[in-house]
Every structure is written in C-alpha cells, then in structure tokens.
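Input structure tokens:
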C-alpha cells in the first residue's frame, strides 16, 4: 500500500505515517444544509397568502409574530427538552444580527460619549454597532475560552461605561455566570456612588442554543442558579439568522429581553419608533412615540423559514456537538490542547468550530506566526478549511482597519479629540490585549461540518494526525 493509497481504512485508528488523499468535505452551513420541503412549504404559504409584510396584508399569516413567541419558549426550555407553553422572555425579530445590536444598544440608552466594554475576538459588527451609536468601544482582554475575561472587567470599567458586551465566539461560551456575578457586584458599588448600572448585552450571533451555568441578572438575580441558554444571562441578548449561523433564513436577527419596558422600546425602535401599546393598535406602526426608528422589520417569508429551522435546532446542535467532541478527543490524543470550555462539567458549547493550541516551542512572536500559517496552509491542502486565528480577518480587533485608525463618523466622533483622545483605554492596535494576542498566535480552528459521514470524520482525524506529526518532525 502506498502512503497515499485511497483504499486506506480510515475507520481504523489514524496512522500518522500515512498521508491521506485530499478530499472535498461538505461546507458547514448547518441550517441551510437541512433545507427541505418544510422550508419550501413555509415560503409557498406566505406567497399564496400574498402577505409578505408582518403587520398587514390581504391574508396575514403572523409568521414573524409566531417566530418571536416560539423563540421565547425555546429560550425558556432546558437543553434538548420540550418548550414550555409560556416564557418570561420577550423577543423581537429583526432583519439582521447587526441591526439587532444597533436596536439593542439604542434601546439600552447608549449614546454619544458612552463606553461599551467588548472583547477583542468578535465580528466587526459587534464594534460597528457601538460606533454607530456614537459610543466608544473599550476592549477587554480574554481568558482561555477566547471570550471576554470576567476578571478583567474592573481594569477597564469607568464612570461612562454603560454596557458590557460578551460575544460567545464560534459557539463557545464565555464564563457568563461569573461575568453576571461580577457585574452585579460592580453595580451595587455604582449604586452607592450614584452612578447608573452597567448593562449586559450578549452578542450570541454565533452561539444560538448554547447554554451555560450561573445566575442571570446584571443588577439583581433574574432567575435561579442553574443552566440557562446564552442570551438570557444579561439584560438583552441578540442572535443572527445569516447563513453562517446555526439556523438560517438567509438574513435575520432576534433580540431577547426579560424586561417589559426594554421589550417595548426594542419593539418600537426596530420599527418606526412608535410603541404598539394599544390592542388593537390604532396605527400599524404603533401609537406612542419612543424614539427614532431603525426600520429593521423582518419579512414574513424569512419568519416562516426561521420557524421551521428553529424546530431543527436541537437536532443540529446534537450533530454539531457529536462531530466536534470526537475531533477534539482526537486532537487531545495527539498531545494538543483544545480551546477551554467555560464549564468543564456541563459544557454548553454548540460545537460549531474546533480550536486547538500549538504547543509552545519558545519561539518569538514572528516565529509563532510563521508556524501557525504553515500549519494552517498544510491543513488547507486537505480541505479542512482552517483558520489561523491571528489571520481570522475582521474577527480580530487589530485586523479591523477602521477601528485601529479610529475612523470618525460623518460629522466627527465617537472618539474625543484634544487631550481626551490619548486615553489608553481607547487604543486598538495589536498589543492592546496581550492575553488574547498570545492566544490568537497559537490557535488554529477548523470547521467540523455537522453533516459528516463516518468516513469523512475518520478522514479528518487522519489528515490532522498526518499534518501534526509532519510538523512535529520539523
Ligand atoms: C458575533 C457576531 N455578531 C454580529 C453578527 C452580525 O450578524 P448579521 O450578519 O446577521 O448582521 C455576526 C455575523 O456574522 C457575528 O458573528
């Protein structure tokens, strides 16, 4: 048998001395991969009713309104369990995750000169939404989960801090229970100083369905200690329905809160700025002005598709976790450390992406970058779609050119000019977050598609074994 013989039995334990023949693996769009007749029926239903707008039409189907109620029930369910009939949550559907962030920040009252604490491993929208509100992003370093480190908050918080935004990345939870506890302590101190409370906005665009342990609530506990879905620990949580997320309607977003006043503001601001308090409302867009609307309504076709997809979410999560756990076990058997989970006893990560750390060989920064790129290139040859996280485009704060250069909005701001412009907390170049910087130059991620066959999964293990052993021999 030649070293690259395609007849290799991948089901057997991977042999690091055998180079597998490169294959094409399925792309990982878990929701879209499962589109079937139900999604077709959902779209056809709306088209047949000739009512694609959520608030009126000849035969209104109420798809978006039902999506909101169903997602609220999903968030109140325990992982894998049945959905309760009632939910303490209020959900507003919008037309993107970016829009969800902008509406949520506006509803939380974030404006010019306010500060929002955010991690440095994120997606550019988590930053642009802050800047669009004319607020200033203040970066917080990360822990081994690659998410916002709750123990770093106190070093960054200031009198102008209004919101803390954890961004559970790639389906991996932050230590959100610890974060909520820290914010409650901080808020008790702020109340004594006469300062407004800091609110928590969870950007869960990449982690719908993940769960974590702790006590939710930024000022007072809002639910008992236990397991809760991410997005329900803070004051507001947002999700995305874009194709690269766990379920998809192509585009779309969801905003959740437990607070009825916030829910009213979110509902008004996502539309024309008017609250729909009266039943039935006199005006379709609402009756009481609350603020300036964002025009972020979701359409009925996307609402109908998202409802079908939501029913598939538990099955998708189970498939993602199965493949992810198996590949992670394999990586650890090769002597590699995998990304830390927030809760080792009950990891609620979604399994969207697998990340492993390259062992420290005492190289300097440039040496680590060279090695990370070399290994990512080698994995790419085998179709594993790797990312060396240092090069992970605008998921990394220092790769976001408009942030590093503090590009102003039209008319100036949000960053101050003059003396205040030198505030070290308003720095964004590489080096601002040393712990994260180090993690990014020693971490590689690979997609583990949720639709893998056993043979494909075994092929991934074989390719990893080959690349890692070849690298170790260098
Ligand atoms: C962490 C995070 N936040 C926000 C967004 C924005 O979502 P959307 O693409 O639906 O606007 C994304 C999407 O990629 C994301 O990954």
């Amino acid at each position: 048998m030649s070293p690259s013989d395609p007849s290799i039995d991948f089901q057997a334990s991977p042999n690091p001395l055998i180079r597998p023949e490169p294959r094409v693996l399925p792309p990982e769009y878990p929701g879209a991969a499962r589109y079937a007749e139900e999604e077709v029926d959902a779209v056809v239903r709306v088209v047949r009713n000739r009512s694609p707008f959520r608030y009126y039409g000849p035969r209104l189907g109420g798809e978006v309104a039902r999506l909101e109620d169903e997602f609220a029930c999903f968030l109140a369910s325990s992982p894998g369990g049945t959905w309760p009939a009632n939910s303490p949550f209020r959900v507003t559907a919008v037309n993107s995750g970016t829009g969800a962030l902008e509406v949520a920040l506006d509803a939380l009252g974030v404006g010019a000169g306010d500060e929002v604490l955010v991690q440095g491993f994120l997606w550019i929208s988590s930053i642009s939404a802050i800047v669009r509100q004319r607020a200033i992003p203040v970066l917080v370093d990360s822990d081994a989960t690659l998410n916002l480190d709750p123990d770093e908050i106190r070093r960054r918080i200031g009198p102008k801090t209004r919101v803390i935004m954890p961004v559970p990345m790639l389906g991996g939870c932050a230590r959100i229970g610890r974060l909520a506890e820290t914010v409650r302590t901080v808020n008790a101190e702020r109340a004594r100083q006469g300062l407004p409370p800091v609110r928590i906005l969870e950007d869960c665009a990449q982690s719908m369905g993940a769960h974590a342990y702790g006590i939710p609530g930024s000022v007072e506990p809002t639910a008992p200690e236990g397991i809760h879905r991410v997005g329900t620990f803070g004051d507001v949580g947002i999700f995305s329905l874009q194709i690269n997320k766990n379920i998809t309607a192509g585009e779309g977003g969801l905003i959740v809160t437990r607070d009825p006043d916030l829910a009213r503001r979110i509902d008004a601001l996502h539309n024309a700025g008017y609250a729909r308090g009266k039943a039935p409302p006199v005006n379709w867009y609402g009756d009481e002005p609350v603020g300036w609307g964002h025009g972020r309504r979701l359409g009925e076709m996307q609402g109908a598709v998202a409802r079908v997809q939501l029913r598939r979410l538990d099955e998708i999560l189970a498939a993602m976790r199965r493949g992810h756990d198996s590949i992670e076990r394999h990586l650890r058997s090769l002597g590699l450390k995998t990304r830390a989970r927030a809760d080792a006893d009950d990891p609620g990560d979604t399994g969207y992406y697998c990340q492993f750390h390259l062992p420290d060989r005492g190289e300097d920064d440039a040496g680590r970058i060279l090695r990370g790129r070399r290994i990512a290139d080698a994995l790419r040859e085998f179709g594993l779609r790797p990312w060396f996280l240092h090069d992970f485009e605008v998921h990394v704060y220092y790769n976001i050119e408009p942030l590093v250069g503090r590009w102003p909005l039209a008319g100036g701001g949000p960053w101050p000019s003059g003396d205040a412009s030198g505030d070290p907390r308003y720095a964004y170049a590489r080096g601002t977050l040393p712990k994260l910087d180090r993690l990014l130059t020693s971490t590689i991620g690979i997609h583990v598609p949720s639709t893998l066959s056993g043979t494909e999964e075994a092929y991934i293990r074989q390719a990893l074994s080959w690349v890692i052993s070849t690298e170790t021999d260098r």
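The first strand starts at residue 90 and ends at 94. Residues 96-98, 122-123, 125-126, 167, 203, 205-206, 240, 242, 253 surround pyridoxal-5'-phosphate (CB under 6 Å).
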